[in-house]
Amino acid sequence: SVDLKGKDLLTLAEYSPETIRELVQKAKEMKEAYLNGEIIAPLKGKTLGMIFEKSSTRTRVSFETGMFQLGGQALFLSSRDLQIGRGEPVSDTAKVLSQYVDAIMIRTFAHETVEELAEHATIPVINGLTDLHHPCQALADLLTILEVKGTLKGLKLAYIGDGNNVAHSLLIACAKVGMDVAVATPPSYAPNEEIVSLAKGFADASGSTISITNDPIEAVTNADVIYADVWTSMGQEEENEQRLKDFAGFQVNKELVAHAKADYMFLHCLPAHREEEVTAEIIDGPNSYVFQEAGNRMHAQKALLVELLG
Ligand code: CP
Ligand code: NVA
């Protein structure tokens, strides 16, 4: 069974397929218990420090309420107010916070910042999104797919858009659990090659496939899950105008989803821009599970917190 006590969650690549499957199963059970009104407080007296260098609605609130529900407490730490924002080294911050809290969640820009924090912290570090990875999102996504489809292995997920953090974490997570992944991006927005080759290795081991293309129709053909994310991620705002041009043709709309399976499900990490990466008709339509997905962030992270800290 899962033994994550004291470990970090940086990318999901470091977790075995069994661990990921068990985490998702545990999240499902904890969600059912929560919906039945059961109160379990295994993290009484524990605290989670949450460092944010970027905005957040879901990650912040789901970690904060999740910790509270488990009997613990979370602290919201904006980098604007921390000394880290005035140049205190990440390594010093890690050593200091390790004396006060039981785990740290961080949302930042460079993935190396999370690695550095984890290297110097003596407590678990959880990646709450970097420019390269968003592992907590992928855990919630697997939970949502499992709830809707009843299985993970053998399904095909098509990701349409920018080959960055969310795409990378889906590549890793889906490949680990035996799902086929097709990623379609404009030519200069392909996913990171190292992460793709890592995912290909995981896919070989689980018997699934990874394909990277510039053709959204090819990617969604026969897909069980269609996934979109914003075209302009946090920190890229000045590229917005160029990106709107570059991503023309990569909108998830009625014409595109017609190539997927009839019972395809639509997912999006949110926040979304209607009529940019996805039409309102699709994201607000009957095949969309984006709010169940957002809700599942809390359940997936509660399962993770219990395993890291319990
Ligand atoms: N999907 C996600 O991480 O949302 P937030 O940016 O609101 O945390
Ligand atoms: N790719 C998006 C995801 C937000 C949850 C970003 O990095 O802004």
Automatic annotation (TrEMBL):
The keyword Transferase applies. InterPro entries: Asp/Orn_carbamoyltranf_P-bd (IPR006132), Asp/Orn_carbamoylTrfase (IPR006130), Asp/Orn_carbamoylTrfase_sf (IPR036901), Asp_carbamoyltransf_Asp/Orn-bd (IPR006131), Orn/put_carbamltrans (IPR002292), OTCase_ArgI (IPR024904). GO terms for biological process: citrulline biosynthetic process; L-arginine biosynthetic process via ornithine. Its main location: cytoplasm. It is an enzyme of class 2 (transferase). One of its GO terms (cellular component) is cytoplasm. Its EC number is 2.1.3.3. L-ornithine binds at N165, D229, S233, M234. Keywords: Cytoplasm, Transferase. Residues 153-306 form the Aspartate/ornithine carbamoyltransferase Asp/Orn-binding domain. Carbamoyl phosphate binds at S56, T57, R58, T59, Q83, R107, H134, P135, C136, Q137, C269, L270, R297. Residues 7-147 form the Aspartate/ornithine carbamoyltransferase carbamoyl-P binding domain. Pathway: Amino-acid biosynthesis; L-arginine biosynthesis; L-arginine from L-ornithine and carbamoyl phosphate: step 1/3. It is found in: Cytoplasm. It catalyses: carbamoyl phosphate + L-ornithine = L-citrulline + phosphate + H(+). It holds the Pfam family OTCace_N. Belongs to the aspartate/ornithine carbamoyltransferase superfamily. OTCase family. HAMAP family: OTCase (MF_01109). Reversibly catalyzes the transfer of the carbamoyl group from carbamoyl phosphate (CP) to the N(epsilon) atom of ornithine (ORN) to produce L-citrulline. This is Ornithine carbamoyltransferase. The lineage of its organism: Bacteria, Bacillati, Bacillota, Bacilli, Bacillales.
